[in-house]
Amino acid sequence: MRRTPGLGGLVLGVAGVVAMLLWVGGDGYKQTLVTTTATYALVALGMYVPYLMAGSLSMAYGAYAGIGGYAVGLLSNRTGLPLALAWIVGPIVAAALAVLLGLVTRRLSGFFLAAVTLLFGLAFSAWLVDAEGISGGSGGLGNIRALNLLGWEPSAYQVVVGSALLVCVVAFLLDRLRLSPWGVVVRTMRDAPAAVEAAGVRVPVLTLVALAIGAAVAAIGGGLFTYAAGSVAPETFTLNLVFLAIFMPLIGGAGTPWGAVVGATLAVQLTLNFPAVATSGTLILALGVLVIMLIAPRGIVGYADALRKRVPVGWVRRG
């Protein structure tokens, strides 16, 4: 595992997936929770690259997830093309739009960048309502046909398993990207952009690449949710999802993409799975972020890793 950076996180992630699938069993509601968790995790992982690695906070991720969702809906209802192409077309369109939006807002940062991209997300939702001939209007698109992969149509449970494994693969790849030379330069750019520019690396280009990667990952999540739900509408991917996606890596741990996965799991459990806190789950989540920032600034994953490093020391001392 030491020879392959990020492999330890993948092993723990797969173990978590196995435990979750044992918990789910044949319960349809729990299966829905898993696909929702996978969607939240993919959107949060999409935000991880430009936000936590590159330091560029874009609030347009509801639009990027929506592009992925409508790619599934449009290919299903308006064409006879294989539905699997939606997970290729959607991320490409979302990445291209993220690059275009990044070029327009390249001189903005901080609050102003967040505000402009937030308005773009709202404008995109309004356009979906007005473009009835394309998007189906406020009613959206439904009756998503079954996915057919060379004659194989996955069952609902197989979709759940596939979505959980997809999250693990994406988190692992982003973790490897974070540890790669490119990732090191991007993280350095976040803290010292002038030094990176002085080294001959174009900071705006790195930012655009990070935005494109993030938008593509979010679009994959949007397509997954649309397929699992069987429909997509303008209100499917709201601002609530975007704000939760900001919190998720902070709860789980901003130091690794796996923190976004842990945060997404907790967010779904608090906001959807516990009836006792269903009406105040988001508030509890926000308070949890404050507590974690005070007690464990590195998040749950970072805190657990610190405890892991302390355990052998205690054993040695007792010996």
From TrEMBL:
Keywords annotated in UniProt: Cell membrane, Membrane, Transmembrane, Transmembrane helix
Cellular-component GO terms for this entry: plasma membrane
Subcellular location: Cell membrane
InterPro entries listed in its UniProt record: ABC_transp_permease, LivM-like
Signal peptide interval: none
Membrane topology: Multi-pass membrane protein
Spans traversing the lipid bilayer: 6-26, 38-64, 84-104, 111-129, 155-174, 205-229, 241-267, 274-296
GO molecular function: branched-chain amino acid transmembrane transporter activity
CDD domains given in the database record: TM_PBP1_LivM_like
A Pfam family assignment: BPD_transp_2
Cited PANTHER family: BRANCHED-CHAIN AMINO ACID TRANSPORT PERMEASE PROTEIN LIVM-RELATED (PTHR30482:SF1), HIGH-AFFINITY BRANCHED-CHAIN AMINO ACID TRANSPORT SYSTEM PERMEASE (PTHR30482)
UniProt protein name: Branched-chain amino acid ABC transporter permease
Species of origin: Virgisporangium aurantiacum
Taxonomic classification: Bacteria, Bacillati, Actinomycetota, Actinomycetes, Micromonosporales
